[in-house]
Amino acid sequence: MNIQHFKEAKQSLKTRPGLSILVVMTMGVGIALLMTMFTTVYQQMRVPVPHISQERYLVLADARPVEDESLMEAWQLPSFSWNDAQLLLNMESPAVRQSINFTSRAVLEVDDPSIRPVWAEGSATDSEFFTIFDAPFLFGGPWTKETDMSGEAVMVISKDLNDILFGGENSVGQTISAQGVRTTIIGVMDDWPIKAAFYDRSFSDREMHQMFIPLGFAIQNNLMRSGVMYCTPEQRQAIGDVRRDDINQLMASDCGWINVWAHMNSQSSVQEYEAMLSQLVQQQKDFGRYQRENVTTLVANINDVVSMRGADDWSRTLLVMAYLFFGVCLVNTVGILLAKFLNQSKRVSLYRALGASKSYILKQYLIEVLCLGLIGGVAGLLLANLGLEVMFQVEMYQSDYDGDPKVVRQYFTLDWQLILTAVAIAVSSIVVAGLYPIWKICNIPPAGQLKS
Amino acid sequence: MLKMNNVSKFYRTNLIETHALKNVNIQVKDGEFVTITGPSGSGKTTFLNLAGLLENFDEGEYFLDGIDVTGLDDNALSHLRNEKIGFIFQSFNLLSDLSLYNNVEVPLNFRGLSRKERKERIEHALEIVGLAARKHHYPNQLSGGQQQRVAIARAIAGEPRFLLADEPTGNLDSVMARQVMELLEDINDKGTTIVMVTHDPQLAKRANRNIHILDGQVNDIREQRLTDLAV
Ligand SMILES: Nc1ncnc2c1ncn2[C@@H]1O[C@H](COP(=O)(O)OP(=O)(O)OP(=O)(O)O)[C@@H](O)[C@H]1O
Ligand SMILES: [Mg+2]
Fold first, then answer.
1. Across the interface, do A446 and B81 touch by the CB < 8 Å criterion?
2. Residue range of the domain that includes A422
3. Which of A9, A61, A122, A227 could form a disulfide with A211 if both were Cys (CB 3.0 to 4.6 A apart)?
4. Shortest CB distance from B81 goes to which of A11, A347, A355?
5. Which residue, A39, A1, A30, A18, is CA-closest to A416?
6. pLDDT in tens, B149-181
7. Kind and range of the H or E element at B62?
8. How far, in Å, from the CA of B220 to the mean position of ligand 1?
């Protein structure tokens, strides 16, 4: 290819500008819709912590009573009971470390009366949490292992919460009241480069946790449990309000509410861990628990959990429709290109008579088609931004504007990979759409169209 | 030299098969000016198209400047067409969106010529046809005769060995036709071989030789001017 082919392509683009614009618009709209839905699904399927996800495993085992016949995939199973989680932690484990947590909520107040109290959601967890999930700190740091169950009133808060309560100042050492209990801030987490709150299994794309407190502190002060609680009706009967009533009864029960994570760095460790989990299940069977015939267990890393979860049905349906619509746009493009090219058959015929080879014609029209694809792709990306803005607004509206716009926004944002994907799709599909029209125009017989 | 041995050409449509050329044997020597006459539908254009490598023939063999063209691929044929042959059509076939300069440039674009080389050739060719001053004009600003002269400039800009003209004066009045004919004769005098289809007996007579085609067959070759021509 040389400059001459580009000149010819430019000339051809200009000869029927209406048709060129039509091709760009058709491709643009198709690409825009496709990329809007593709981005939505893709961002949902994004692994929340790519740099460690390979080695962080969610652990689950099906302790539900036999009567519970609801169909569940392994990743949907209830979390562990407090006692089972403790058993797991105390077994001889191949894991580098393990961490457990449950989701809690508390009203937080600072001494400064001008700052309104905050209803904060967070994790009650152990000191391993910050290590296992590689949490970055802006000020201070995590608590120690001894503090996990000691009941000491300390707290790590998120950068967002620190901005709200302390105007972004270093708040380490300050006190804050949580449900009326004086608590000392020992660390402020920096913005955590994660895509979703995966650690409590919610994979929430609306907001991240704002506070992190030691398990012992949450238990001693009977802080609220706000995550998913799996309790049978009988258990609920016995405990009362599983979220607010006596936490000691909840801890003694078989309710599932404790999330267990393990850090493992080899496949053999995973196998050993699975064996250990089966052993636990077998032992518990002797006590009449884990009554199901085949007890489902899961030891899956974050990548696998994300792909097991998949994207939500609504987005997936829209994506399929976007693909179909794109197909229609392509068929349309074939028609427009054909009309556009055959319009120039007289010129091509003359070119051929004057000595242009088929490959000369081919290159010229290929370049033209590639240019149209490229422009169509760019137009599509601009429109996709509009589409994603609409999707973002819809999502915010659906959550009653409860979500953190910063967090929700990232689910409706194009990144470089998506932009390159869009361009690649635009260019490759327009080449496919252009095959027949280009083949047609290349086979125009020389001088065939020149009869007077 | 242009040499056809027993060349035949059929056109097949759904219902009929037209035998457009039947066992044609023709030789055109270097430097000749040959006119071709014959009634409408006799195969004159078909012959010119075969000679100019615009169409394939079905039987026989054809040597263009000593090259056997049978079996050459599209690239080779296009290359030969571009290098060795200049076409002049009855209906000029200029591109209306290009200036005269750019129209003449078209066949040169298919070769790897530098911008400077192209410029020299274009200006030289326009000089020869007497339209150098109007190179920035567009075809629709010219008379028919002038347009045909631009087409001639386009045909000779690549300095081909052969000019093939299909009724180049067919759309022109007699004065303009004579001018075009004189121009072609000048070009022929400088060594370019010319094959011209014409309906005009006056013009046909002016050539070295006239070939008459009837029903796809070369019926009668009358040597009109017996000039010594190198083979
Ligand atoms: N593309 C084609 N398909 C089918 N038949 C064709 C085709 N081109 C020419 N023919 C037929 O071949 C025969 C010769 O046609 P050709 O155009 O060579 O005649 P011609 O001598 O140039 O006539 P004219 O003086 O009218 O230009 C005619 O019968 C014509 O109908
Ligand atoms: Mg004809």
1. yes
2. 3-45+311-451
3. A122
4. A355
5. A39
6. 999 999 999 999 999 999 999 889 989 999 999
7. strand B59-64
8. 20
